[in-house]
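job 3f2a | input accepted
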Amino acid sequence: MRQGQPYFSGNYGSALGSTANAANLIARAGEVQGQMFANIGKQIGSTLEKFRINKEKKETEQRAENLFLKQYESNPDHPIFKNFNINGIDEAKAVAKDL
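job 3f2a | predicted structure (99 res):
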């Protein structure tokens, strides 16, 4: 190798050209990933909302059952219980769940 001559010389392929296409692909991938996380967030939010509604519904039903049973325990001879043909706490519990 002579002095002053570059170490690498020759044609090693074409020039890189514009990087705009690569930048657009990366931006699009980021946009798609962002949309994916937004959709996951919406789904999680919807799931939590349904969970809270169902939990509240179950708590309300449980309070109503407990109230029915307390009323039965305090006055099992009340006409409303007789009209339902309730004979005992086990039957009262079954009716309370259906109400």
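job 3f2a | The longest helix spans residues 20-74.
job 3f2a | closed
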